[in-house]
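Quick one: structure tokens for this chain, please?
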Amino acid sequence: MTEFPSQHTAEILPGEPHLAAQAGLKEWHRIVANLDWNNLPDLLADNVVFRNPAALEPYHGKATMVAILRAVFSVLQDFTYLRHFGNSSGYVLEFSARVGDEMLFGVDLVEFDQAGKITDFMVMMRPASVVLNLAAEAGKRLAAN
């Protein structure tokens, strides 16, 4: 049987996110609800890292993250956050959406700094067939802009 390295208990940081992260989450929800991408840069750290399910390598910087999210959300329909879970520095946000007639489920893993700015944002989604359709359509829209 293959053994996988386990996380040591001392490295697990349970608990409620710090107040700045909580405020950052509120602002994130406001931005998403209003599709207010023009104000998203104010919520992002200068060196923000964005990881999406369509690419292995992360993207860096505010402008890139805003452009990708603008394109992705122009494709998604009925985007809804379902639940969230927190630790000391961030959140896991479970969501659902549609791409055409197909359902999509996923999570956003969001880390905040002490100023409440997003420093790391990872998106994980399923099923793969819908993720590929989303990536293709968002890619076309990015290329057109």
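The beta strands are 44-51, 59-60, 77-86, 90-99, 102-112, 118-126.
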